[in-house]
Amino acid sequence: MIDENGLAVETIGLSFSFSKDRPVIKELNMQIPKGAIYGFLGPNGAGKTTTIRLLLDLLPSGSGEISVFGKTLGDDRSNILSRTGALIESPSLYEHLTGYDNLKVTANLRSIKKDRIQEVLKIVGLDTESKKYVHSYSLGMKQRLGLAIALLSSPDLLILDEPTNGLDPNGIIEIRELLRDLNANHGVTILVSSHLLSEVERLVSHVGIIGRGEMMFQGPLKKLQQISQDKAVIEIDTDDNARALEILLEDHQQVSKAAQFLEVHYTDRDRLAQLIILLTAAGLRVNRAQLVESSLEETFLSIIKDDHL
Ligand SMILES: Nc1ncnc2c1ncn2[C@@H]1O[C@H](COP(=O)(O)OP(=O)(O)OP(=O)(O)O)[C@@H](O)[C@H]1O
């Protein structure tokens, strides 16, 4: 269940530089509702990994605030980190040990009961493969084992940096289903980063788009879909486009003239038929009337390029 008012993660004015004169994270305000699957998207070098490292307190602290489950990271570090599981790119695994023994090492280190090992193996679907050596695992199995390690402490928040990097389409689907299950059936809030919207589009409830260290868009996926829809136009070509333009303006349509045709802002399903009727009733011949939609990926790319508004 997504709780829009309760935040699992919040950053306020988060900034960070590796060197004095070049900030890589700039005044970032991130808001991840409890129960959300938050897709943290941006091109290579945008600052996703750096933000994630800051959330996990793996870098010297920058300026601004980080709160997790309402507690400030600086004040409540160990409590917060004990409720957070993370997987940053490829997991560090002992290849010469079995999947089970890899989990046992971490369970011992963190004083986690052995029963939990079987539970997480089941969750990630490795229970029948746990006695095999990790060097014989596929990349997808290694990634799932990495997730199992992150899940050992029964985290409320899971932070995953590009977890499907390098996986084949099947592996990507497996991880996606696993994350969906963790979110829906185990109540885990998930932050998952990716540079491809298409990879997470069918998984996430919320999106944060980062470009050059700045948050360019943040909100429910539905809001991004709405922006995409709002960019749809109807292209119309008639035997007299100058006259058609006049008629459409008189009818209070949002219309502009392109090289060979007119573009009318698309608002609803009936619009196309209404425009054809309007123009033919005025004696014009409509040669072409076509709805042109902007894909979600195109909207994402225009947001990154900062020319969406
Ligand atoms: N250890 C470091 N020292 C100096 N600069 C760094 C360091 N790590 C990252 N950067 C720089 O910080 C910026 C953000 O990098 P970051 O790895 O956070 O981006 P990203 O969005 O995760 O990209 P990718 O998808 O390629 O991993 C980049 O310009 C990168 O070159």
TrEMBL record:
Gene3D superfamilies: P-loop containing nucleotide triphosphate hydrolases. SMART domains: AAA. It comes from the Bacteria. One of its GO terms (molecular function) is ATP binding. Signal peptide: none annotated. Keywords: ATP-binding, Nucleotide-binding, Transport. Pfam families: ABC_tran. Residues 9-237 form the ABC transporter domain. InterPro entries: AAA+_ATPase, ABC_transporter-like_ATP-bd, ABC_transporter-like_CS, P-loop_NTPase. Belongs to the ABC transporter superfamily. This is ABC-2 type transport system ATP-binding protein.
